[in-house]
């Protein structure tokens, strides 16, 4: 099966046979049972519809291991008597099936502690990010870079240069559970586990055949989904040889672009072009920013607008006929580029002609196809000892439209342009002008599209099992992994800016309309009519938007060699001493190659037909595209580390309960930044009170700079009027945005304290937990502007003086290197609440009824930029970001042997656009960059209601349905200060009501 063959320029796609029929189930019921009791306690009634919060050791999964050792992500300790202090939410395979999502990622991200994750609905508005369709987790709002995602406790090669893996590439049908560790775990697992760890555990002993099939669609008739999965496993040679194969295919049609103005895809009607218009006034007693719907830029229109000079205000319709533009706000053009009655701070008016605004033209969700093949073979060479080999080959392709047309507000048009209507030429003569300013959304141009193709090849070979030393049983796990990701980004229908300008400047020569610039004509320039909706000729489009558009080809590799041991060498006064230790080597590498128009070469392929030399283009520095100027780069680093973890039983008795102390330390050496230590110290106490447990942990965690931050492919930006404070003159300089190989790891202090009530004898169906967390992150990697770097040096900070030159005698010799530094610091705190109650045989009915709730409250999320004069901002409750004050998930489920029915509620609280604003109407203080004034600063939260159910058709076949966002709740506006789509898809549902049905089978 060929994935995304529509993009003819992508590299050869994977070909995998997708044999499957049946389906993921429909009901979500997360079980946040706070923490289980000791192994000797009676087991609870079976629950198959909810994630369970466990104490790192109390969930057995014998089908995933050689033996029945308990392995839960938050710790390397594997003793059954160990209760780790870090709260962990476990999501079982049954839970994942009941969510009925086309991607496991969607099933996990609804947990309240996951904030700011990325997926197919995020990143669709940009061209150059390269993260479209990338499914990655973010815990505690700290970003995907600070959440460590593992597969069977092993690292996975990144899907782009940030090192973040793509969850949709995992073998999803074989996942038996997902452990979500809500807290730092760097001492146990290494770098990046600042916010926590998400670990996918697969079934390595699966025997039989199972298959899923699922279809879905939104109430607007788009994002059509089709998913097929199948897995087969067998045991041979007296159950010593295990072979497993799985294959998956998933198609998600996405939600395409709308049109200019306010027309979204389908019949969605919630877009209002909401904008924070800037009055430009900062000290007149009135707010600087005004919250307004139906705002539009006054510098361009759908088919062209004269935006400067005596003719300002003349626009052109689709037929190229001039008319007087309706600015809104009672706006009257002043002939100098401004509009009286509108808002000069960001060149916006309110109301009037919205037809040229591009915000609604971006895709709401990327179209996505993924295909995954997985195989594993394991052989028990001795009892409880296995040698194994796995291979995972996956491809994810996406496409989206970032915005329609091509917005250009700074053209100079000659009155002699032969395409210009005679009426306007006559007006030029009357006004005694030969040219005027012009802006257009170029709605007659093809809409740009971004195509991504990520292919991953992952190979793992390893040994795991048990051995005895002096009568003590030890466990080991050693593996080597080699991972490769090949990522291609192709952008179609993006213009070369200088060619576009040349093509718009037309003259009549020898009776023919041609480009005015003779050098451009010699290089193939074809004229374009920018007045009205006449599409450019194919020759003109080929010149302005050549077929070989922006592209980026990236190769990432990751090699990991790891060995881990754990055992119980001593019996102490209150139980065995548990020990885990090990070491790991890791090598990370990337190389990226881009097209010469974007990346730049000494001459743009003067000897090649695809990139002919062109005097209009910057051949040395590139950056010729309107968007998508990718660059070349490469880099690598090595990591060596070792760790030791101990669990010491403190006491045990009927009158005092049972307590343990857990500690770990890890030393890590990075070839780029040196050596760093991480550690954790915590403990749990099962008190004498029935079912009552206390837990606490504090840790030092780190995130090492990734390949992109260390070795970013450089980008070049021209600064024509850069202020040189040393000479107090304006100079032309080039801003070189580069990586910084001298970056140090970010460091965090993570503290958690929790209280758990778990299935007391007086109410055995009840579980409750409360966990407070506090995270302080220092040395956060962030960047300064070019002007800030030079100013800091001028002010006497020598650390910033080596990266620029502003007095070069050579043409083009002035430059400022902009790179990331360990500048910022973050602090966040809050608490998690989890509760569940299970009622077996409610009112005498067969089956069980379960109610559950998970909630996260973010008390504060303080961001300190680390830059003089920039105030700390609290982002908690800023719903334009990722950290609402409150976020809840509640589930009610009834299930028996024949069917199940689930009701689910997802809610987060009202918030603000940003907590830096000062709200006022009159008598406002002076508006500053740190605290701008605004007339309105409230952003509604959201409540989503979902319903699902399943029916067991036979003992092996189950059908299901699921409806998400039953009431089709629209997202709140996330106002911009530009022309973007005013929505926050990382927090709000932008698709609307979604239906899914399917069937699954297992034999």
TrEMBL record:
Q: What is its main location?
A: membrane
Which domain of life does the UniProt lineage start with? Bacteria
Residues of the region (Disordered) are 36-65
Q: Where is the composition biased (Polar residues)?
A: 56-65
Query: Which stretches make up the TonB-dependent receptor-like beta-barrel domain?
Result: 455-966
- How would you describe this protein's topology in the membrane? Multi-pass membrane protein
Task: Quote the SUPFAM superfamilies the UniProt record gives.
Answer: Porins (SSF56935)
For the motif TonB C-terminal box, give the residue ranges: 986-1003
Q: Where in the cell is it found?
A: Cell outer membrane
Q: Which UniProt keywords apply?
A: Cell outer membrane, Membrane, Receptor, Signal, TonB box, Transmembrane, Transmembrane beta strand, Transport
Annotated signal peptide: 1-35
Segments forming domain TonB-dependent receptor plug: 83-197
Question: Which family, according to UniProt?
Answer: Belongs to the TonB-dependent receptor family.
This protein's name: TonB-dependent receptor
Source organism = Sphingomonas rustica
């Amino acid at each position: 099966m060929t994935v995304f063959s529509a993009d003819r320029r992508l590299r050869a796609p994977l070909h995998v046979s997708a044999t499957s029929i049946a389906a993921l189930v429909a009901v979500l019921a997360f079980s946040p049972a706070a923490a289980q009791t000791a192994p000797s306690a009676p087991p609870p009634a079976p629950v198959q519809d909810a994630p369970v919060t466990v104490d790192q050791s109390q969930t057995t999964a014998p089908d995933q291991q050689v033996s029945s050792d308990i392995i839960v992500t938050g710790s390397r300790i594997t003793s059954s008597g160990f209760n780790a202090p870090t709260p962990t939410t476990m999501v079982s395979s049954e839970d994942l099936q009941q969510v009925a999502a086309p991607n496991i990622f969607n099933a996990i991200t609804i947990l309240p502690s996951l904030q700011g994750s990325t997926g197919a609905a995020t990143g669709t508005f940009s061209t150059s990010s390269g993260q479209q369709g990338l499914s990655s987790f973010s815990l505690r709002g700290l970003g995907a870079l600070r959440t460590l995602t593992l597969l069977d406790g092993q690292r996975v090669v990144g899907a782009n240069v940030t090192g973040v893996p793509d969850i949709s590439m995992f073998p999803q049908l074989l996942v038996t559970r997902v452990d979500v560790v809500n807290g730092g775990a760097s001492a146990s697992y290494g770098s990046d586990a600042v916010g926590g760890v998400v670990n996918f555990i697969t079934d390595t002993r699966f025997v039989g055949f199972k298959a899923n099939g699922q279809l879905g669609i939104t109430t607007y008739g788009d994002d059509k989904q089709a998913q097929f999965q199948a897995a087969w496993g067998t045991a041979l040679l007296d159950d010593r040889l295990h072979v497993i194969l799985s294959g998956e295919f998933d198609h998600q049609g996405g939600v395409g672009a709308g049109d200019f103005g306010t027309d979204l895809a389908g019949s969605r009607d919630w877009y209002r072009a909401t904008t924070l218009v800037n009055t430009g006034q900062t000290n007149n007693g009135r707010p600087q920013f005004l919250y307004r719907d139906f705002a539009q830029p006054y510098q361009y229109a759908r088919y062209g607008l004269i935006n400067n000079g005596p003719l300002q205000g003349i626009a052109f319709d689709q037929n190229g006929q001039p008319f007087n533009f309706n600015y809104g706000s009672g706006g009257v053009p002043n002939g100098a580029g401004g509009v009286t009655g509108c808002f000069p701070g960001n060149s916006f008016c309110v109301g009037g002609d919205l037809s040229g605004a591009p915000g609604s033209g971006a895709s709401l969700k990327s179209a996505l196809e993924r295909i995954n093949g997985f195989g594993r073979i394991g052989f028990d060479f001795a009892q409880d000892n296995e040698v194994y080999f796995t291979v995972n080959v996956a491809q994810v392709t996406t496409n989206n439209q970032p915005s329609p047309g091509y917005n250009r507000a700074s053209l100079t048009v000659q009155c002699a342009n032969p395409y210009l209507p005679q009426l306007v030429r006559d007006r030029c003569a009357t006004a005694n002008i030969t040219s005027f300013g012009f802006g257009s959304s170029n709605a007659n141009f093809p809409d740009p599209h971004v195509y991504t193709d990520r292919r991953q090849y992952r190979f793992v070979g390893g040994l795991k099992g048990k051995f005895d030393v002096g009568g003590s049983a030890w466990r080991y796990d050693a593996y080597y992994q080699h991972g490769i990701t090949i990522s291609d980004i192709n952008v179609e229908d993006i213009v070369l800016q200088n060619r576009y300008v040349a093509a718009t400047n037309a003259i009549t020569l020898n009776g023919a309309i041609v480009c005015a610039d003779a050098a451009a004509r010699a290089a193939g320039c074809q004229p374009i009519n920018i007045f009205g909706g006449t599409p450019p000729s194919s020759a003109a489009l080929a010149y302005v938007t050549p077929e070989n558009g922006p592209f980026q080809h990236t190769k990432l590799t990751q090699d990991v060699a790891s060995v881990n041991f754990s055992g119980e060498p001593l019996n102490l006064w209150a139980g065995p001493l548990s020990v885990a230790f090990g070491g790991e080597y890791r090598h990370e590498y990337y190389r990226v190659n881009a097209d010469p128009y974007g990346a730049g070469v000494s001459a743009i392929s003067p000897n090649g037909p695809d990139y002919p030399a062109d005097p209009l283009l910057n051949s040395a520095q590139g950056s010729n595209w309107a968007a998508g100027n990718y660059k070349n780069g490469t880099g690598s680093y090595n990591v060596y580390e070792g760790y030791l973890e101990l669990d010491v039983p403190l006491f045990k008795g009927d009158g005092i309960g049972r307590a343990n102390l857990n500690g770990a330390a890890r030393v890590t050496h990075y070839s780029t930044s040196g050596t760093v230590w991480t550690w954790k110290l915590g403990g749990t106490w099962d008190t004498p009170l029935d079912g009552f447990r206390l837990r606490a942990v504090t840790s030092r965690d780190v995130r090492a700079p990734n390949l992109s931050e260390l070795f970013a492919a450089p980008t070049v930006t021209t600064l024509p009027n850069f202020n040189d404070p040393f000479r107090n003159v304006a100079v032309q300089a080039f801003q070189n945005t580069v990586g910084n190989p001298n970056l140090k790891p970010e460091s965090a202090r993570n503290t958690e304290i929790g209280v758990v009530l778990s299935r007391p004898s007086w109410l055995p169906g009840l579980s409750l937990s409360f966990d407070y967390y506090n995270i302080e992150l220092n040395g956060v990697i962030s960047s300064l502007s070019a002007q800030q770097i030079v100013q800091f040096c001028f002010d006497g900070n020598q650390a910033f003086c080596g990266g620029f030159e502003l007095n070069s005698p050579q043409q083009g010799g002035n430059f400022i290197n902009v790179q990331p530094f360990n500048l910022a610091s973050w602090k966040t705190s809050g608490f998690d609440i989890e509760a569940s109650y299970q009622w077996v045989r409610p009112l005498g009915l067969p089956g069980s009824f379960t109610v559950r709730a998970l909630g996260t409250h973010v008390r504060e999320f303080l961001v300190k930029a680390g830059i003089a004069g920039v105030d700390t901002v609290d982002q908690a409750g800023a719903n334009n970001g990722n950290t609402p004050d409150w976020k809840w998930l509640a589930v009610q489920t009834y299930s028996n042997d024949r069917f199940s029915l689930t009701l689910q509620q997802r809610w987060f609280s009202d918030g603000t656009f940003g907590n830096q604003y000062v709200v006022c109407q009159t008598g406002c203080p002076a508006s500053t960059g740190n605290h701008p004034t605004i007339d309105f600063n409230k952003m509604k939260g959201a409540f989503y209601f979902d319903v699902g159910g399943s029916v067991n058709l036979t003992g092996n076949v189950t059908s299901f349905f699921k409806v998400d966002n039953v009431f089709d709740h629209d997202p709140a506006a996330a106002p911009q200060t530009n022309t973007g789509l005013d929505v926050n898809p990382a927090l709000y549902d932008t698709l609307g009501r979604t239906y899914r049905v399917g069937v699954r089978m297992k034999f």
